[in-house]
Automatic annotation (TrEMBL):
GO biological process, any: transmembrane transport
Protein's name according to its UniProt entry: C4-dicarboxylate ABC transporter substrate-binding protein
Originating species: Rhizobium deserti
Assigned keywords, A-Z: Signal
The keyword S-adenosyl-L-methionine appears for this protein: no
Highest taxon in the source lineage: Bacteria
Signal peptide location: 1-25
InterPro entries, A to Z: DctP_fam, TRAP_DctP_sf
Length: 326
């Protein structure tokens, strides 16, 4: 074979390699249930950007917000089965699978970001282990603002919650509805604006962030800052998808996750104050709960803590004990 023929083949191979190299980049999808302007999604987008930069494009993560790819309750299963490589979920959505997933929504157990961070540190090993058994690798967590009560009526005691069409999105909120005599209606975050507009829901306990996301002032006018609990979102990846990455790319993902968790906790605290101001500016009555309401909610919290401890057993009680000693 002539030297020119070798040269032609070499050139052809080089062109083929150049044109196909971009396809060798790993492509991940990461579904989330929250709107694009929500700080959780903004944090996800920054995480994806950090990974892209650190890997020089070897791993591309596309975030799909607002339950556009999978509904909130389906995201975790989608990642487990490989329909999505990574995902973000409200951890307590899956309390029925394992009680430890619902620890952060036990009312009045952790009512500040400082307490919530300690609760996360106490429970993280058990949560990581539970996710690992399900084929998932935990990447990071981000807190929501403290949970309060939104209604269209004055609420001076838990008795005033009776009869409300109460939005339920996890075990805890459903149980609260049962205990106060409200009617639980399962509504996920992406469906909330429509549920409020049509009167499907007229009372709920959620964060000021969700209130702003859903423009809740268009339907309800009272917010009681009960600071009942601080729930968290977790971001995880399919273990097989992670294992398929080169070690350097794996490190880029975990490094970006550490940065995202630090940023997310700071954002949670920072955004809480601005969300509360937004509620006020849009005409909502924002007040602290009355002593009678606090007393009734504390009694509900004690009952739900007891319920959770029974489900979680000795391992769960050990986590709570460790948290209380921090």
């Amino acid at each position: 074979m002539t030297t020119s023929r070798f040269a032609q083949w070499g050139l052809a191979a080089a062109v083929l390699l150049a044109t196909t190299a971009p396809s060798l980049a790993a492509q991940w999808v990461l579904p989330s249930a929250y709107p694009p302007a929500n700080y959780h999604v903004e944090n996800l987008n920054q995480f994806a950007k950090d990974v892209d930069t650190a890997t020089k494009g070897e791993l591309k993560i596309t975030v799909h917000p607002n339950a556009s790819l999978f509904k909130a309750p389906d995201i975790k299963r989608a990642v487990q089965t490989g329909q999505a490589q990574a995902g973000e979920v409200l951890l307590s959505l899956h309390e029925n699978e394992n009680p430890v997933f619902g620890l952060d929504v036990v009312p009045f157990l952790a009512t500040s970001f400082e307490q919530s961070k300690k609760l996360w540190e106490a429970s993280k090993p058990a949560i990581e282990q539970a996710l690992d058994k399900q084929g998932l690798k935990l990447l990071y967590t981000t807190p929501w603002p403290p949970q309060g009560i939104f209604t269209k009526r004055d609420v001076n005691s838990v008795a005033d919650l009776k009869g409300l069409k109460w939005r339920a999105y996890n075990v805890g909120t459903s149980r609260i509805a049962d205990l106060v005599g409200a009617q639980p209606v399962t509504v996920q975050a992406a469906e909330l604006p429509q549920a409020l507009a049509t009167g499907v829901v007229d009372g709920l306990m959620t964060s000021s962030a969700t209130g702003v996301d859903s423009k809740i002032w268009e339907s309800l006018n009272h917010y009681y800052d009960t600071q009942a609990w601080i729930p968290k979102n977790v971001v995880f990846v399919n273990k097989a998808a992670f294992a398929a990455l080169d070690p350097a790319v794996q490190k880029a993902v975990t490094d970006a996750a550490v940065a995202a968790e630090t940023r997310g906790w700071a954002l949670g605290a920072e955004k809480t104050a601005s969300y509360m101001e937004t509620l006020k500016k849009n005409g909502m009555t924002v007040v602290a709960p009355s002593d009678e309401l606090k007393k009734g909610l504390s009694e509900i919290g004690a009952k739900l803590t007891e319920d959770w401890s029974k489900k979680a057993g000795t391992d769960g009680v050990a986590i709570v004990d460790a948290y209380k000693k921090m």
